[in-house]
Every structure is written in C-alpha cells, then in structure tokens.
Design a protein that fits this description.
Helix content: 10-25%
Number of strands: 9
Number of helices: 3
Largest sheet: 9 strands, mixed
Bound molecules: cobalt (II) ion
Oligomer: single chain
Structural class: alpha+beta
C-alpha cells in the first residue's frame, strides 16, 4: 500500500545553523524557508536525489514542534512520510487494523499542497508516520 519515502522531517532548534550545515557542509540542495502558519512551523525543503528532508522549526505560540524540541533540545527526527495513491482507502484500511489516526481523521492539506494524515507513533514502533496522497 505505501509507496515511496516522500520525506524525513527533522525538528531543528536553530534553523539558520541547520541550513548552513546542510547547504555548505553536506552540500545539499537547500530551499528558502517557508512559513506555514496553519501548521505552526517554518519549513526548509532539502532535495536529495531519492527523497527530501524537511527541516522544521516552530512558528507561533502553539507550534506542534515546540514540545518536541523541549524534549529533544538538540533536535531530532520528527516524522517520516510515505506516499499513498488513495489516502482515504489507506486510512480506512489502517483504522480497520486498529491504527489510530491523529486529529479528526480527515486529511488536511500538507506543506506540499497535497492531502496528508498522521498516524499515532505508538502504533508504528515509536515513529510518527505521515501519509501523503500523491
Ligand atoms: Co511531513
């Protein structure tokens, strides 16, 4: 059911430092920071030959990333995103299998303008999983 790894998202305490590290030290193709007020994050997209990395930094007062960085002050992998062809069919199948979908259970439009859902990390080996319909 799941397809390609769309991205790995990394929460970072210092976005400028992370950009410099990925661009200059690791030599990656790093985009400009984008504020996503609906999601409470500033995102920097890094394009790799086979997938993407998203650097996430808190934006606003109720950012979902703020608590994560409090627990992981040096930053850390926040979630991984798998592509699916049909997000509703994927959701229904996962819920039938007992997996919990976060929020209302209805897809939201994610940072790439595509429908996304998040699955509870306790149901997936401690990993927050994002599904994105492509
Ligand atoms: Co994501």
């Amino acid at each position: 059911m799941i397809g390609r790894l769309n991205h790995v998202a990394i929460a970072v305490p210092d976005l400028d430092a992370a950009v410099v590290q990925y661009r200059d030290t690791l030599g990656a193709e790093v985009g400009a920071p984008q504020d996503e007020p609906d999601h409470g994050v500033t995102v920097v997209f890094i394009t790799l030959p086979n997938t993407k990395i998203e650097l996430l930094h808190p934006l606003g007062e109720s950012s979902p990333i703020a608590g994560f960085l409090e627990k992981n002050p040096a930053g850390g992998i926040h979630h991984i995103c798998y592509e699916v062809d049909d997000i509703i069919a994927a959701r229904d199948k996962l819920q039938d299998a007992g997996a919990r979908v976060l929020g209302t259970g209805e897809p939201k439009i994610g940072a790439h303008g595509k429908p996304v859902l998040f699955l509870h990390p306790k149901d997936f080996n401690g990993t927050l999983v994002e599904l994105e319909q492509v």
